[in-house]
Design a protein that fits this description.
This protein is an alpha+beta fold and about 140 residues long. About 25% of the residues lie in helices and about 30% in strands.
Length: about 140
């Protein structure tokens, strides 16, 4: 696989894609818009989560109309806002067995989706950061 330098960048929204003219929503939104119906604490938590995502490597964080996605070469993580926090989403090559995982989704033979509820700063801990780093390094960068 290539690296993030060989990606196509949409001239309208700035999104990164592995192939030119790949379909996408192409909307430009802000984190504040995404959390307009949430508490101020939820927005603050989301801002901390975004900082964690940026700390994983060369990551583009894109606020969309109903969610936020994190992209290295491909999407690997994100969030879905809630009134009092958000649902952190990430993909791994394996299943995680933890009481923190509130939902799992089998997407294909290469990756499995996981969802964790984040309602307090303590939820943004080393365990979640570890899962996000693994997600970035394997799924996001398309490495085994």
């Amino acid at each position: 696989m290539g690296d993030v330098d060989d990606l196509w960048i949409c001239p309208s929204c700035g999104g990164r894609f592995v192939t030119p003219n790949m379909w996408h929503s192409c909307g430009v939104h802000s984190l504040q818009e995404l959390f307009a119906r949430s508490t101020d604490d939820a927005l603050s938590l989301a801002e901390e989560y975004v900082a964690i995502l940026h700390g994983l490597g060369d990551v583009q964080v894109i606020a969309q109309k109903t969610r936020l996605v994190a992209v290295a070469r491909v999407r690997f993580a994100g969030l879905e806002p809630r009134e009092h926090g958000f649902r952190a989403t990430f993909a791994l090559r394996r299943w995680v067995d933890s009481d923190r995982i509130v939902k799992k989704e089998h997407h294909n033979d290469r990756w499995r989706g996981h969802v964790v509820d984040v309602r307090a700063v303590g939820d943004l801990d080393d365990e979640l950061r570890g899962w996000l780093q693994e997600s970035h390094d394997t799924v996001g960068l398309q490495r085994d």
